Amino acid sequence: MDQAQILDHQFVAAAYTITWVIQLGYLAWLGWKWRTEKRNAERRSPGRR
Amino acid sequence: MKKLGIGLYAVVTVALMIWGFYQAIYVAPDDALQGYIFRIIYYHVPSFAAAFTFFSVSFLGSIAFLSFRRSRPEWAQIADAWALAGAEVGVVFCSVGLTTGPLWGRRAWGIWWTWDARLTTTLVLWLIYVSYLLMRRFAAGPQVQTLAAVLGIFGALDVPIVYMANRWWRTQHPAPVFGGAEGSGMKDPAMLAAFGWNMLAWFAWGIFVLILRFNVERKHQQYAEEEAQEALAANI
Lengths: 49, 236
Fold this sequence. Notes:
The longest helix of chain A has 42 residues, at 3-44. Chain A has 1 helix and no strands. In chain A, 86% of the residues lie in helices and 0% in strands. Chain B has one domain (2-176, 183-235): Up-down Bundle (Four Helix Bundle (Hemerythrin (Met), subunit A)), CATH 1.20.120. Chain B starts with a helix and ends with a helix. By secondary structure, chain B is mainly alpha-helical. In chain B, helix 2 runs parallel beside helix 7, helix 3 (73-108) packs antiparallel against helix 7 and helix 4 (117-138) packs antiparallel against helix 6 (158-168). The A-B interface holds A 4-5, 7-9, 11-12, 14-16, 18-19, 22-23, 26-27, 30, 33-34, 37-38, 40-41, 44 and B 21, 25, 35-37, 39-40, 43-44, 47, 92, 95-96, 99-100, 103-104, 106-107, 205, 209, 212-213, 215-216, 219-220, 222-223, 226-227.
């Protein structure tokens, strides 16, 4: 593997990693927001789901 | 039953993501001109296709909100939740596209960025929707939803300009993968398959997070309404 091929490989790995970090980060934030809203609703009317 | 459906959809989406990744990295051949770096395109193009689709959801939601805000307030709230969800998920996908693009450009062109028509209009699109989200987050008052809907409609008008930019003007950005001039686009069936699988996988993922975001916003709206009703009752 020459230097250019190694660099190409590193750039592809970086692009795929960044994609997954952004998407999974957003999903985690959504999950946290969902939990907050659910807790708010439960605090308002306990017993209701 | 609902939980089973969501679980099944999540499993299919994850399977599609894994299969798409396998196709892009291990099955598709290197591009004849660009070599290995071309594999970034299997994530880059579907991200923008999804972003444009979700900005269109925001556009339709914004129009529906403005249409129903006086006659059917409940419908207007649902439309507003779709508009917000579409804008937010669109910004996430657009951010992915704007990050993976320069990584490809650095190796293919030797530069991270250039102010050509396609790239500049895309950055403007991203900035418009980021300002939309910032307004929704920090502005207060009864007119925020209406102002956001107007901004959402104007923002979406940039989508066809971005799409057509490398057809209307001479740009450094490559020709379209589909719908470009004769002879442009992918030819190898293995590359087309990798592209198709990743397109399917990212749309499945995008729809999943879009529906999740919509439901979070609906819950938030219900909570805000209950709180407003209680405050009103306390003042009477």
